[in-house]
Amino acid sequence: MARLFLGLDSSTQSLSALVIDLESRKIIYAKSLIFDEALPQYKTRNGVLSGRDPLVKHSPPQMWAEALDLIFAQMQKDGVVLGEILAVGGSGQQHGSVYFNERAENVLANLNPQISLAENLHGVFSRKTSPIWMDSSTAKECSEIRKKLGGVKYTASRTGSDAFERFTGPQIRKFSKTGTDAYKKTSGIALVSSFMASLLAGKIAPIDFGDGAGMNLMDIRKKVWDADALKATAPGLKLKLPPLVHPGRVIGKASNYFVEKFGLNPEALATVWTGDNPASVIGLGLIKPGQIAISLGTSDTFFGTMEKCQTDENGEGHVFGSPAGGYMTLICFKNGSLAREKIRELYGIKNWTEFGKLVASTKPGNDGGILLPWFEAEIVPRVNKPGIHRFDLDEKNAAANCRAIFEAQILSMRLHSQWMNVSPEKIVATGGASNDVALLQVMADVMNCRVERIEISKSAALGAALIAAHGWLMAAGENPKWEKLVAGFTAPISGSEIRPDKKAVRIYDSLIEKYAACECEALEKIAG
Ligand code: XUL
After folding, report:
1. DSSP 125
2. Ligand 1 atom closest to residue 93's alpha carbon, by position in its atom list
3. Helix, strand, or coil (residue 437)
4. 299 falls in which pLDDT band (50, 70, 90)?
5. 242-274 burial by CB neighbour count: b if 16+ within 10 A, else e?
6. Res 510 pLDDT > 90
7. Local structure of residue 450 (DSSP, 8 states)
8. Helix, coil or strand: residue 356
9. Ligand 1 within 6 A of CB of 59
């Protein structure tokens, strides 16, 4: 008999639903709904409201709720057997926050299936819009919190990350300073993940260790709210936050709203949601320490699992709780695909095949030529003044510059992930640029480990479904092993494995020092 679990992923631009059958180990349904297209009345662009201040990025929480109605209706229309779903879980874009007033609890407990979720939620928000992870308007609040917590190193070792502009604590602090009355009227603060879980469960849902770690409010080692961080952030904050728990834990039965309206199984369990990155760790099958994923997108992200909590003294990387127990790390490099494209444009190279040919015509190590491709302000290392820097590299040599950008990006990942103390056993490459074999070969050689490709598009929703299945099995008294649970769902693309070349590995082992020195020199020059 089939055992079905539903995973939802509420991301910046869309809401995705994915159903797995644990028995046949198959994804039996996957669909996404793009906010801008399906809900134009909210007037978002890529899921985000445009305001006067370009640093401020908010989204309407009613839109996320309305999308939940639409995706359930779509599943019903597509014949998904909602009456057989055993548990529903989910993931949300990290760091975004939703603000409830005292009416919320009662409204959630009595959701009326005759009207929409958005209508049900009318009048429960103490803040109309939700700041999201793209918001970078809280630099002042970050430095205030960091100062109160004793600096970068201490903030990172305490909460898993230095105070970052997109993190929830600084967003809450800004709200408490600028909208004092509305802050006072706020009785509950949710993350995007726990907000969506609250709708499913019909009660205020807990926040999980994975997403909770992206707030600068959780003690990363003890996994409880950190009293000093709460105090440094906003008055009376403890009372506004739900408990912190393990992702996938059962909250209770799913709200009757979904049973009556869409025919969801009345016995279906609502489980605790997590952030999209912790969910992707599961959806990509990164269960054992040393399993790393590199997502090559607009920005490049380096993430993976870690057994013991190890934080970054320089405050560049993040540590979150992993749904599989232990920890996960995440390092975000802003100059990813956009920087690669800039080099392609700069040298008038037609396409990526041509680009790859030029890279292949040069030698690993590029005869010592180094490029620092900070076309945009960079997060890691922190660079506020964009610019590109060349060392022993002829600007006119197109082929050498093509190799140089690939090498710089991967050498930077190696250098800036050293604090994790994890030697990668395998790297899973995902995202648009992971089709590029030349780039993956540089990755295998610089990192000295095998690289496999995997299709990322639904990894967060898949992870969410697997986390829900884990929670359901735990509640049923079983103790499922994560490796067994993900088996079959997270296979790499067949024939995609790339192995390191021993000679090239030796070259990069010595080049890393020169790369680090070049970075220091450029950073000093920028600092003036
Ligand atoms: C992670 C982060 C983003 C969002 C995107 O720290 O800010 O990856 O989670 O949804």
Report:
1. B
2. 10
3. helix
4. confident
5. bebbbbbbbbebbbbbbbebbbbbeebbbbbbb
6. yes
7. E
8. helix
9. no
Other CB atoms within 10 Å distance of the CB of residue 350: 8
What's the confidence (pLDDT) of residue 86?
A: 98
Q: Would you say how long the chain is, in residues?
A: 528
Q: Classify residue 495 as exposed, middle or buried by CB count within 10 Å of its CB (0-12, 13-18, 19+).
A: exposed
- Per residue in 363-419, pLDDT tens? 999 999 999 999 988 889 988 889 999 999 999 999 999 999 999 999 999 999 999
Give yes or no for residue 490 CB within 6 A of ligand 1.
no
Using the structure block, give the residue that is written with the tokens 């800036």.
Answer: 416
Smallest CA-to-CA distance from 19 within 324, 464, 481 is with 464
In this model, does residue 179 exceed pLDDT 80? no
Chain centroid to CA 171: 17
CA atoms within 13 A on the CB side of 383: 25
| Ligand 1 touching residue 249 (CB < 6 A) | no
pLDDT tens digit sequence for 260-270: 999 999 999 99
Does the pLDDT at position 155 exceed 80?
yes
166 ligand 1 Cβ < 6 A: yes
Per-residue exposure over 355-375, b if at least 16 CB sit within 10 Å of its own CB, e if not: bbebbeebebbbeebbbbbbb
Which residues lie below 8 Å from residue 506, measured CB to CB, with a gap of 6+? none
Bridge partners of 185? none
Q: Is the pTM of this model over 0.70?
A: yes
Q: Whose CA is nearest to atom 6 of ligand 1?
A: 94
Overall average pLDDT of the 68-91 stretch: 98
Question: Is ligand 1 within 6 A of the CB of residue 276?
Answer: yes
Of 144, 153, 315, 140, nearest to 233 (Cα)?
144
Compute the distance between CA of residue 193 and CA of residue 467 in angstroms, rounded to an integer. 13
pLDDT band at 456 (very low <50, low <70, confident <90, very high): low
- Going by C-alpha positions, the residue among 358, 375, 357 that lies closest to residue 298 is 375
Nearest residue to 96 (alpha-carbon basis) of 199, 20, 202, 171 = 171
Centre of ligand 1 to C-alpha 48, Å, is 14
Partners of 294 in the β-ladder: 302, 429
Of 407, 397, 298, which Cα lies nearest the Cα of 349?
Answer: 397
CB-based contacts of 224, cutoff 8 Å, min separation 6: 218, 244
**3-state SS string for 41-52:** HHCCECCEECCC
Residue 435 has pLDDT above 70, yes or no: yes
The pLDDT tens digits of the residues spanning 316-327 come to 999 999 999 999
How many Å apart are CA 63 and CA 481, to the nearest integer? 37
Q: How far is CA 130 from the centre of its chain?
A: 17
Q: Helices 352-360 & 437-447, crossing angle to 10 degrees?
A: 40
pLDDT in tens, 206-222: 999 999 999 999 999 99
Which residue has the least CA distance to atom 3 on ligand 1? 94
